[in-house]
Task: structure prediction
Amino acid sequence: SSMSSTLSDLFKEIRRGRTPQFGFASRAATNTEKMLVAAILSTASASAVSSAASAGARIVLIAGADGKDPDKLSELVKAAGSAKLGVIDPKFDSEPEETLAGLKAAGVHFCVVKPDQTPARALADEGPELVIALEIGGSLPSPARLASELSTGGLAVSLVRAQDSAPSLSLTDLGLLRQTFSGSRQPVIFLAHEGVTPADIQLLYDNSVECIAIKTNATASEITKFVAAVREIEPRGRRRSSEDLMPVLPRVKQSAEAEEDGDDEE
Result:
């Protein structure tokens, strides 16, 4: 992917792979990825970036760069190869435009920023695309609406979860994710919590999730497992229909007990 291509271009590829195609196009579409895997690195070294990209991460995220050392950052961008390098929570000083200009000079593709901690001046054209980090759940504002108001490069969403939530994905989580991804025309990255595993990938796909970001160590073994799960995704009918925001649940065989309960209700 070229340096000038945006996050939207990457997501367009994914959406192409999800839309039912006919004729020759259908054969081409079977080769496209069905979901993007992004790696959130604990250590920002060229070797960690390179191993995450080699393991199949299409987006590599590092934390807290400030753009003051563009040479070091551009090494990381080179190490990412065709993967896009993003910075989570860039450190803004009193001149946000300078911070962003430094990140852009290094070749950083986009920054994931918290809207309430980001100076409004950061929206100037000097820097990489801004992706708004939002928590979804509770009484928080509609993320898709906030992003379209600000016309930024997309959203990075994490889930607000109660302490006694199911460890992987709860029904609430699934409904919120489906609503957010189906309702947004912009790229959305799901910043997964620790309980999410490769076994959840099909379910996330069925509920319109297009990109999952997972925390990974330098060996990138986690990435390999998630990328393998993405390869096993089975497409099932239409995706991303905003008319149908009901979560798609896993297909389960009803137990005999549940069927008897059903009979009692009639």
Q: What stands out?
A: The longest helix spans residues 7-18. The beta strands are 36-41, 59-63, 84-88, 110-113, 129-136, 154-159, 188-191, 211-216.
